[in-house]
Amino acid sequence: MGLVRRAGPASEWVNPGHQEGHTYCLNQQCHRDCLFAGGRPRSVKPRNLGGRDKTRPIIMCRKVYEDEWKSKLRQSPPVIRACVLRHCVTGSEGFIGSHVVETLLRRGHEVKALVQYNSRSEIGWLEELQIVDPGTRLEIVLGDLRDPGLVNTVVEGCDAAINLAALIAIPHSYSSPRSYIDTNVLGTHNFLEACRTSGVKRVVQLSTSEVYGSAVYVPMDEGHPLSAQSPYAATKIASDQLAFSYNKSFGLPVVVARPFNAFGPRQSLRAVVPSIILQAISGDGKVKLGSTSSTRDFTHVQDLAAGLADILESDRGEGEVFNLGSGFEISISDVVQLVSQILDVELEIEAEEGRFRPENSEVSRLYSDSRKAQSVFGWGTFSESPLERFTSRLAETASWFAQNQSSYAGDLRTFRY
User: What is the pTM of this model?
Assistant: First the structure.
């Protein structure tokens, strides 16, 4: 039974073995093999329980959580969290991936990050991590999800793994659908197979709300029918089903997480929120868009990253899918009005033909029901209303893009979502 290290003398830690009621889990597998295994630091005081101290990246056993914090359990269900683990994160250099890496490091975990190979050895948004000296807890590997041998090497030795690598631009999937199959389906197969052969104890496959197509009913729970309205959505349905098949066929402990319309710092101009913001900041008061009557359920990327980390740290939900959304819908035209108010500029919407999807491919409405994730993982409980939270996070996002325009080269108006 191994010990989890932290800053401070090793003599502070004890490891008496399996004894029910110990305050801190130190066995890396205790979240799966024994909920009450491990030891505890001698100096811990009860008042320290419940917080995420950066110098103490360990979490409570379930029994102590229940005994010491019953008042919190009345507000949200208990979440069984893992000890410090080594996580494999594919697509780590991207918008969502970099925030997930950041979140895991802040929680004290180790991360092995797969970055898409490029001849300049650039590591994307990992260059901008808001982490002070991650040190040896972050290992970056350049490679390609389509290379099974490389993926095996990256996954080997990891306790948990999450697949965020994918081609995601919907317009590009119309012209190059085969490339989406190669990355999103065959790449996912490589990832799942590597996790199976390496004995990874917790696996998360990232889905997308696009697999639902336009809402048949709202709010959309996990039982909503699937409808691929683009080649991109079809490949994500395929990758989700492949993940489920590995759970049923081989017992792979996989969970499918299905986010709704993430937004926030570092997002590509392919997405509608940064497109609106940067056109508003640098343009002439005109915002060129496609469909503006469509509604979306926008979720801030940091909230999403926290939800994905919660799922990785838990042992619940194996073989299931979980929506991760904010639980409200807003039209694209109303987003433009909010940006106008936030930036205090007059904005006029101009319809641009090249930004519209084909008629039958347009997803007109997305509105999540994420109560399942809230019930199982305790995720998604906020003090503000969904609209208030979206508005405040949108203002933060607008401020970030205003300060980081130089990171987005090229003609802003050539991008379409």
Answer: 0.81
CB of 138 closer than 8 Å to CB of 105:
yes
* Residue 74 sits in the same domain as residue 91: no
In sequence order, which residues have a C-beta less than 8 Å from that of residue 79 and are 6 or more positions away?
Answer: 310, 313, 314, 316, 377, 378
Residues 247 and 377 in one domain: yes
Instruction: Give the other-Cβ count within 10 Å of 61's Cβ.
Output: 25
* 283-309 confidence digits (pLDDT tens): 789 999 999 999 999 999 999 999 999
Quick check: helix, strand or coil at residue 409?
coil
Domain count, the chain: 2
367: burial class by Cβ within 10 Å (0-12, 13-18, 19+)?
Answer: buried
pLDDT band at 4 (very low <50, low <70, confident <90, very high): very low
Contact 395, 341 (CB under 8 A): no
Q: Per the structure block, which two tokens stand in for 382?
A: 């906020």
Reported as a single tens digit per residue, the pLDDT across 38-72 is: 333 323 333 333 333 333 333 333 333 333 323 33
Tell me: pLDDT of 35 over 60: no
Is 272 inside any structural domain?
A: no
Count how many Cα atoms sit within 13 Å of the Cα of residue 156 in the half-sphere of its side chain. Answer: 7
With respect to residue 282, please indicate whether it lies within any of the assigned structural domains: no
The H or E element spanning position 268 is none
